[in-house]
Write a structure and sequence with these properties.
This protein has about 230 residues and is an all-alpha fold. Helices cover about 80% and strands about 0% of the residues. α2 runs antiparallel to α4 and α4 packs antiparallel against α5.
Length: about 230
Amino acid sequence: MKAATACLVAILSLLQIGTAVAVIAITAVNLGNVQSLQDVLKLNQKFCLASSDPKNMSACTYIYAVGAVSIVFTILIGLLQLITCNMCGCGKIMDAVFTALACAWWLVAGFITAAHTKAANSARPAIPGSQWRNAVVLLCWVTSGLFGALFVVHMLRIGCSRCRRFGKKGSQDDVEKAGLRNESRAPSAAVELGKEVAARPYMLGRFGGSKQAAGNAGSYLSGPNI
């Protein structure tokens, strides 16, 4: 179970890093580094095709920030857990919290990029690069889903570890209770044995006296009759 969940976490983590890199690469190559060839005087002016206003670079800058922050925090948390020995046993909880926040982070990014894409695709005159804008939106949704899947896996890992911990604690309590019962039985057996040993001289004396009395009576009856 541990090996399977660890393998699943590794695969999902690599996939979410890959989708984040793809978002940045698509934006940098096809949407955010476009130059106008219509006017020679504006040859060095860059345009962003991720929104309905190509001259406004804020949409592309936002997409860069979303992908970069996600990648950086993923690497930093991994290194932090490696240095601190899995956060002294709290690494699963940190992973769950981070993946939940990252899922929300990419979910918001998906809504924002979808709004910009819808406005850019319906603009007149038409703004080129609609397929790349749609790809960025799709990758944002996919990355959010990957982080959501990671959150579910981490919560399952936390639940399984808690169940194992409670199971071990319950078995340990049963062993301790059994030991206490054995200890309580041992003195009781010793007390009963002591009572039996103490009663033996009394019983011996009682039965011995009876035998002596019977012998005296027999000798009296067998004696000479006067």
